[in-house]
UniProtKB/TrEMBL annotation:
Protein name per Swiss-Prot or TrEMBL: Phosphatidylserine decarboxylase proenzyme, mitochondrial
Posttranslational mods: Is synthesized initially as an inactive proenzyme. Formation of the active enzyme involves a self-maturation process in which the active site pyruvoyl group is generated from an internal serine residue via an autocatalytic post-translational modification. Two non-identical subunits are generated from the proenzyme in this reaction, and the pyruvate is formed at the N-terminus of the alpha chain, which is derived from the carboxyl end of the proenzyme.
Taxonomic path: Eukaryota, Metazoa, Ecdysozoa, Arthropoda, Crustacea
Active site per database record: 185 (charge relay system), 262 (charge relay system), 375 (charge relay system), 375 (schiff-base intermediate with substrate)
Superkingdom field: Eukaryota
Length: 415
């Protein structure tokens, strides 16, 4: 038969309150108080022990379990990449991540990390802390404060506000003789002609045009890609003028760059497709490793027309990019949970006939939107076959500078 002590150590094994069997009043009261106190403390301790045990069983153990395999996965990827680098010092197919490596990489909770980073960077900074914190960031990432509209760091209430700083008028002149200008500051990752429905992410690593843009039903077309449609057929279906070709350009924005992006041409936006996607890093070193990186990440594809036909501009999200904001599209919500946006993509038609959705006309150089940290801009557009870029991979460019040399359509660019 269990003793009173053993019973007291079990949670809820006996009632918290019981009567004393003492024959007289005062000692009985004292004994009751002592018993109640002892029993209550024992039961509370036992209950806490049970809660801790449950917490360890349902929370801590699975967390350690995931951490263990997560660490093993990252270690395997690191060793694999180290061996590849020694065997294949130049870019080659052997350097591109395998499916299982990408799977391990995607286990990292980049979306949760990005939301936490967004929360942190939006915390209000006391005035005394702004100069040292923002000044350290500016020095680490080579931010040019002389170009900022407000160069006084004490006037920025948080780090996110400094990310989105505006520039002085005239520091980013728009090339008047160019039909296509750089939409943002950044580094050119790659550019060129779309070939057989494929685009180069970086040299030696390509990704699919169809996977990046999704089904091409911009204006009330079928909502599925025709069965059996090849990549080449998909590419041709985008062309308004079949005599033209498709071109693309990828620009990477580093954390120290100017984070607003502008319209690269005179065009009209009439469709937006939002892919919730992942938030993997788009650093050039990762872009060389993960094929189809931009097709995996969250992005907002804006489609419309310019003077030569099809034109699209896509801001691509990345790790620690708390949000992508487009000034003419207040409905866009990025970096949400998977439960909030469960579908692969979300479309919005900007039809002038609809009262709540209007086309967005944009002039060359007009501000379009902003990132909350560095990321990537992908341009895909139709142009005459003699269109040629005048930039180089790895080149640092500034918003407003020309992206091309003279071509047959440039003289009539503003007619």
């Amino acid at each position: 038969m269990p003793t009173a002590t053993a019973q007291a150590t079990r949670p809820f094994a006996r009632p918290f309150f019981r009567r004393s069997v003492s024959s007289n009043g005062v000692p009985g009261d004292v004994d009751a108080k002592t018993t109640v106190a002892t029993t209550g403390v024992a039961a509370t301790a036992a209950y806490k022990g049970t809660k801790n045990s449950r917490w360890r069983r349902f929370v801590l153990k699975p967390f350690v379990f995931v951490q263990f395999f997560f660490g093993i996965g990252l270690l395997a990827i690191a060793l694999k990449q180290f061996r590849r680098k020694n065997k294949h010092p130049s870019q080659s197919p052997e350097l591109i991540a395998k499916d299982w490596e990408i799977l391990y990489y995607r286990i990292i909770p980049f979306r949760a990390i990005s939301r936490a980073w967004g929360w942190l960077t939006n915390r209000h900074l006391p005035v005394w802390a702004r100069q040292p914190i923002l000044g350290l960031y500016a020095r680490m990432f080579n931010c040019n404060l002389d170009e900022a509209l407000d160069g006084n760091l004490e006037n920025y209430s948080c780090l996110a506000e400094f990310f989105r700083r505006k520039l002085k008028n005239g520091v980013r002149p728009i090339d008047p003789d160019s039909s296509v200008v750089a939409p943002s500051d950044g580094t050119v990752l790659n550019f060129g002609r779309v070939t057989a429905g494929m685009m180069e992410q970086v040299k030696g690593v390509s990704y699919s045009l169809g996977e990046f843009l999704g089904p091409a039903y911009w204006r009330n077309g079928p909502e599925v890609r025709p069965a059996g449609q090849t990549e080449i057929e998909y590419e041709k279906s985008l062309l308004v003028n079949k005599e033209n070709d498709l071109f693309h350009c990828v620009i990477y924005l580093a954390p120290g760059d100017y984070h607003c992006f502008h319209s690269p041409v005179d065009w009209t936006v009439n469709f937006r497709r939002h892919f919730p996607g992942a938030l993997l890093s788009v650093n050039p070193s990762i872009a060389k490793w993960v094929a189809g990186l931009f097709s995996l990440n969250e992005r907002a594809v804006y489609v419309g027309r310019w003077r030569h036909g099809f034109f699209s501009m896509t801001p691509v999200g990345a790790t620690n990019v708390g949000s992508i904001r487009v000034y003419g599209d207040q409905e866009l919500r990025t970096n949400c949970t998977k439960w909030a946006l469960p579908l692969p993509y979300y479309d919005r038609y900007m039809d002038p006939a609809e009262t709540d959705s209007k086309e967005i006309p944009l002039n060359k150089g007009e501000i379009f939107g902003e990132f909350n940290l560095g990321s990537t801009i992908v341009l895909i557009f139709e142009a005459p076959k003699d269109f040629e870029f005048n930039i180089r991979p790895g080149e640092k460019i500034r918003m407003g500078q020309s992206l091309h040399s003279t071509y047959s359509g440039s003289k009539q660019a503003f007619e």
